[in-house]
Amino acid sequence: MRILHCIPSMLNGGTERQLGYLVAGQVRRGSDVSVVLLQGGPNLDRLSASGARICCLFRRTKYDPRLLTEMIRLIRRGTPDIVHTWLPLMDVVGGLASRLTGVPWVLSERSSSQAYPFTLWNGLRAAFGASAQAVVSNSKGGDAYWESRLRRPRRRYVIPNVLPLDEIAQAPPVSLDTIGLETGRKMLLHVGRLSPEKNLGSLILALRHAVTRAAFTAYLCGDGPHQGWTEELIQAQGLSGQVRLTGYRGDVRGWMKRADAFISVSTFEGSANAVLEAVACGCPLVLSDIPAHRAIVGEHGAFFVNPGSPESIAEGIVRVLSESAEAKRRAEIARTSIRHVSVAEAARQYEEVYQSVMIHRR
């Protein structure tokens, strides 16, 4: 089977990491896999090691009209059986190119309806996506977004995010010297893009409430459009000594294995990759009470908090640090719930989706 994946970049997001995992699994199953992208990034090394062919259309901007023509040329030259697009830019450009060349198109949905306020670009994506031969979401929320948007009955699938569990198991805990954690302080960890849906304003206000009740240092790993704003808020709340921005880290699994608690208070998610990795590392969890989080850890796998209430988040932080036995018990419940997830199984499920699309296309 010849598969062409289309993604804007291999930057540090969860979608890019998931594609790297999937492509490696597909190559191992014997598929002929190519990936076209516009920009590299931290996840490019993983993709390069997968054995897939990579075509980088560098120096092409989001609105460069040549992007569509080059995409059509690549599809015609490579004659793939399936075009599989990832993230909105390639859903529009790659999807349109697949329609113009007559190649079956599979669209990946990596978030949920809250990620798509009404804009011209989101409207274009929904309009083009309605003609995809299949939509594969990584969550029930993403599947629900497309349920009412497809023009006629189409095949929809839900395949959750996956993890290389053996690789995670081999990651050593980060050293205390590396993170500079002071004696007597607990370690809190947040991993993710510094962007609006991560709800960092509420998290920082919650840390301000909690710092009077517990001794901790909180590490925010990641970068993104709200980095400057986040730095200013930390300083304004007088938390420069308790909250540290680390930037993007390629070794977050080691940090998760060292942390006393992992915190995610997002207002919405698809299937949160960072939460999945924290679960696999056995880290106790404080999570916003949203469907995407409960879908990962179940009803009893974390301390759930109200993402709109800094007081509720602070209470969750204090509990996870003070009730260590209960926190570990919940972490083990969460860990048990993901033991069935594997890269090989996801690659098999995607192959079934592709085969179904190809059969019905004939």
Description:
- The chain has 362 residues and is α/β, with parallel strands linked by helices.
- The chain folds into 2 domains: 2-162 and 342-361, Rossmann fold; 166-337, 3-Layer(aba) Sandwich (Rossmann fold).
- The chain is built from 16 helices and 13 strands.
- The protein has helices spanning 14-28, 44-49, 66-78, 87-101, 120-129, 140-147, 165-170, 176-179, 200-210, 227-236, 252-258, 273-280, 291-297, 310-322, 324-337, 343-361, and strands at 2-6, 32-37, 53-56, 82-86, 105-109, 134-137, 155-158, 186-191, 216-221, 243-247, 261-264, 285-288, 303-305.
- The longest helix is centred in the C-terminal third of the chain and has 19 residues, at 343-361.
- The chain is elongated, with a radius of gyration of 21 Å.
- The two termini are 15 Å apart.
Topology readout:
Blueprint: E1 2-6, H1 14-28, E2 32-37, H2 44-49, E3 53-56, H3 66-78, E4 82-86, H4 87-101, E5 105-109, H5 120-129, E6 134-137, H6 140-147, E7 155-158, H7 165-170, H8 176-179, E8 186-191, H9 200-210, E9 216-221, H10 227-236, E10 243-247, H11 252-258, E11 261-264, H12 273-280, E12 285-288, H13 291-297, E13 303-305, H14 310-322, H15 324-337, H16 343-361
Computed over alpha carbons, the radius of gyration is: 21 Å
Overall structural class, as computed from helix and strand content, comes to alpha/beta
Please give the order of strands in the largest beta sheet: 3-2-1-4-5-6-7
Task: Provide mean pLDDT, rounded.
Answer: 93
- What sequence of helices (H) and strands (E) makes up the elements? EHEHEHEHEHEHEHHEHEHEHEHEHEHHH
What is the CATH topology assignment of the largest domain? Answer: Rossmann fold
- Proportion of residues in helical segments: 40-55%
Span between termini: 15 Å
Total domain units: 2
The helix tally amounts to 16
Beta fraction: 15-25%
**Count of strand segments:** 13
User: Which CATH architecture of the largest domain would you pick?
Assistant: 3-Layer(aba) Sandwich
Overall 3D geometry? Answer: elongated
Q: Return the CATH class of the largest domain.
A: Alpha Beta
Q: Identify low-pLDDT runs.
A: none
The main β sheet shows up as:
7 strands, parallel
The CATH superfamily of the largest domain is identified as Glycogen Phosphorylase B
